[in-house]
Amino acid sequence: MITELGHFALILAFLVAIVQTVVPIIGAHKRWPGWMSVAEPAATTQFLLLGFAFAALTYAFVTSDFSLRLVVLNSHSAKPMLYKISGVWGNHEGSMLLWVLILSLFGAMVAWFGAQLPPSLRARVLSVQAAIGVAFLAFILFTSNPFLRLAVPPFDGQDLNPLLQDPGLAFHPPFLYLGYVGLSVCFSFAVAALIEGRVDAAWGRWVRPWTLAAWIFLTIGIALGSWWAYYELGWGGFWFWDPVENASFMPWLFAAALLHSSIVVEKREALKSWTILLAIMAFGFSMIGTFIVRSGVLTSVHAFANDPERGVFILMILAVFTGGALTLFAARAGTMEAKGVFAVVSRESALVANNILLSVASLVVFVGTIWPLAAEMFFDRKLSVGAPFFDMAFTPFMVVLGLILPLGAMLPWKRAKPGRVTRQLLPALVLALALAGLTWAMQSGRSLLGPVGLFLGSWLVFGSLTDLWTRTGRSRDLRRLMRLPRADWGKSVAHAGLGITIFGIAGLTAWQTEDIRVANIGEPFEVSGYELTLNSVERVRGPNYFSTTANVTLAQDGQQIATLYPEKRSYPVAKMPTTEAAIDYRFLRDVYVVIGDAQGNDAWTMRTYVKPLAGWIWAGCLIMALGGGLSLTDRRYRVAAGARKAPAPAGVPAE
Amino acid sequence: MRRFREWWGKTPPYILVLCLALLAAPVWAVQPDEVLDDPALELRARELSKGLRCLVCQNESIDESNASLARDLRLLVRERLVEGDSDAEALAFIVDRYGEFVLLKPTTGGANWLLWAAGPLMLVAALGVGVVYIRRRSHARAPGEQGLNADESARLKEILDRNDP
């Protein structure tokens, strides 16, 4: 019964979305306030209906209602509760429902917090937002309906893909979708602005919080996914340049670019048409990501729907929205005249450089991702584009970006004296160089990668600290820092976070050590200064899997520092094995232990990695997200939000 | 377009099924018994393996993959190196048998130059546009300082002249 109500709510939401698309935009065009004001209640209603539909599906998963096809395919009665819930979005249909739920949530949030927007702009934004909703709701209802019943329900389900039964991955998709879909608001704002033909500083200020929020969620989502890959896939890689990873990385890069260019719009009224274009591209690439994941055109570990019909449908949505927006852009971009004037050396120019590097880097990832497809279609060649290509083609952009970032972040607006900034940053540069030189001397003649990465990372961190230090003024009064706008804090924190991530990537890539051996039980062995002993291997039974669990002690200088339990699991229902690496997380390094197959009596294959600075990669991402969060709470967004709470002009109505 | 659809339709399920079948009987990436005695040779083998794609997996190198076919390829690479092949010869040997699909780092031959040149070309184009934009902005005048029109300069001249003794 609840399932049918959920299905019905989904259909109703589709109808409400159609109304929300059509009525407000006509109202905005004709200046009919009544028609325009349909948008807000419609947005709220749509969100509530989809929330109900999603809750109904979750209920079916939680109660293991095996009359639902989706539940049968992706759940099992013995599965832990957390994964029963995360199973709702651990599949194509359910994740699409989450996608539109978040889409409608963002639409509703524009309606709730957008009271200070001009009514016609708000109506148009909500209308565009609803149009995206209509397209994806049609996609769900006509090609991927989660509420389909089975005529003959089986006794139990087929279980969720065991790789997805993991806390890290349970929350990875919702965050990623919050990011992907958050960019839809920027897209709607861009299209609405194109229809209005007006982009000004205020528009920049309205768009920025949405971009920030989307970027924060994307950052967390990508970091979670990368961390999951690190501990779950069994060899401790953190990024594989897999098509689906790239699908999330491209919007992230574009969102980062958009974040920076909308500052220029807000503060200096320049880069307007470029910012609009970026907003369109950012969401366009989110949809390309959706297309890549769900069509199966590119083989990937993650692809979970390999259905041409669905692929074509998403391709059509993509073509209509991106194509339509770009056409509108071509027609209207000329009307957006820049106002701000700035010198060649200025913060504005630095941000232009940032945008060039981020967008081109993103396009390089895009070209690499679709090249196998293009080569096969046009040149009849079956080839692969893998990590070695991306490492070579993408990394230089990030190196250059890292080099100029601290300089650009401290250049004043409009017109800058380069000498002044270089003088201020000199100590940071010297420190970073010294650190790189020291590591180069210590590692004696190995690759340059480590020292270069450490230099970049520390240059970014010290650069951010310098930026804050200069804000204390001549008096070096630290209390002034507390009065800095949150956005400035956010900037320094996020940039430092990027530095820490680069630090971690460099450390892990340059100095990882690996050991593969057959370990005998009770016989200690040494891996780069650590002594490991395989004590025992036991067969254990988990809630819905069987496990071979090893007990390994880790010792350093004769002192035991940890006991690790690497596992090998097999899920009988899903018929899939997984590895659960055991990791001793420390500040400066991780020790990563994987257990393999039995090799005769009391001997097992064991792989051990010592991964220096591994944790810094994700810590840096979290710090970046934290920086974004600080910036999001900046007072000027709240001032704008608070304005609507101010009492209406206290005039006595003339009666 | 026809080929596209054909390829689209058939490839993924086949790969998925194969991968699942292989996963059901797990073997592990680089086994102890595969490791060569000569560390220099082993290091070269590892480096080569990182650039070769596991044919039945989804975007994994044979160095990372647990599939048995990946193991065969790893052994093949080591065999070639032990027999005295250079890195390039060993790669050519494998590409001859498995096609360029196994190379994770695409060659620069044929249309692939476009792939490799895409980054630099786009960067040059973007820098060009950026430089033009920045120069135009730095020469532009902000609204309100558009300069004086003929009437205004005449009037200004009149005022200035009046003050002259």
TrEMBL record, chain A:
Tell me which family the UniProt entry assigns to this protein.
Answer: Belongs to the CcmF/CycK/Ccl1/NrfE/CcsA family.
Q: Which residues form a coiled coil?
A: none
Q: Where does the chain cross the membrane?
A: 6-26, 47-72, 96-113, 125-144, 175-195, 207-229, 249-265, 274-293, 313-331, 352-374, 394-413, 425-442, 448-469, 489-511, 613-632
- Tell me which Pfam families the record gives: CcmF_C, Cytochrom_C_asm
Compartment(s): Cell inner membrane
Presence of the UniProt keyword Transmembrane in the record: yes
Q: Which organism is it from?
A: Primorskyibacter flagellatus
Membrane topology qualifier: Multi-pass membrane protein
Give GO MF terms, alphabetically: heme binding; heme transmembrane transporter activity
Q: What is this protein called?
A: Cytochrome c-type biogenesis protein CcmF
Q: Which GO terms describe its biological process?
A: cytochrome complex assembly
**What NCBIfam families does its record include?**
nrfE (TIGR00353), PRK10369.1 (NF007691)
Annotated Cytochrome c-type biogenesis protein CcmF C-terminal domain ranges read 315-635
Ordered alphabetically, the record's keywords are: Cell inner membrane, Cell membrane, Cytochrome c-type biogenesis, Membrane, Transmembrane, Transmembrane helix
Q: What is any one of the record's Gene Ontology cellular component terms?
A: plasma membrane
Q: What role does this protein play?
A: Required for the biogenesis of c-type cytochromes. Possible subunit of a heme lyase.
All copies of the Cytochrome c assembly protein domain together span 89-295
Automatic annotation (TrEMBL), chain B:
One GO term in the molecular function aspect is: metal ion binding
What GO terms describe the biological role, i.e. biological process, of this protein?
cytochrome complex assembly
Question: Might you report a single GO cellular component term?
Answer: plasma membrane
What UniProt keywords apply to this chain's record, in alphabetical order? Cytochrome c-type biogenesis, Heme, Iron, Membrane, Metal-binding, Signal, Transmembrane, Transmembrane helix
This protein's source sits in the domain of life called Bacteria
Q: Does the keyword Transferase apply?
A: no
Q: Which residues form the CcmH/CycL/Ccl2/NrfF N-terminal domain?
A: 18-160
Q: What InterPro entries is this protein classified in?
A: C-type_cytochrome_biogenesis, CcmH/CycL/Ccl2/NrfF_N, CcmH/CycL/NrfF/Ccl2_sf
Residues that span the membrane, as ranges = 113-134
Q: Which residues form the signal peptide?
A: 1-29
Task: State the family named in the UniProt similarity comment for this chain.
Answer: Belongs to the CcmH/CycL/Ccl2/NrfF family.
The task this protein performs is described as: Possible subunit of a heme lyase.
Q: What is this protein called?
A: Cytochrome c-type biogenesis protein
What species was this sequence derived from? Primorskyibacter flagellatus
Lineage of this protein's species?
A: Bacteria, Pseudomonadati, Pseudomonadota, Alphaproteobacteria, Rhodobacterales
